[in-house]
Design goal:
globular, 3 helices, alpha+beta, 79 residues
Length: 79
């Protein structure tokens, strides 16, 4: 999976576009010093988004913004 494009939204949110889901938009929200998937605007033309896909998306976006270490150090990652 590759991150194709990122669009900035208000209130620190981002919309991400991924090659595996070309017709769907993924809304990311910022929590502390990293981003997480808030909403997936899924399109029927794309495959179903799994939990594993969501984690890959979060990792790709956080890597893009240089917040990957903050994302990996969050409490949920350690569990």
């Amino acid at each position: 999976m590759k991150l194709l494009n990122v669009s900035y939204m208000k209130k620190g949110q981002m919309i991400g576009f991924f090659d595996t889901f070309p017709h769907s938009k993924v809304l990311f929200s910022r929590v502390k010093k990293y981003y997480f998937v808030s909403t997936v605007y899924w399109d029927e033309r794309d495959q179903v988004v799994t939990r594993s896909d969501l984690e890959k998306m979060e990792l790709l976006l956080n890597s893009y913004f240089g917040t990957e270490s903050n994302y990996k150090n969050r409490k949920a990652w350690a569990d």
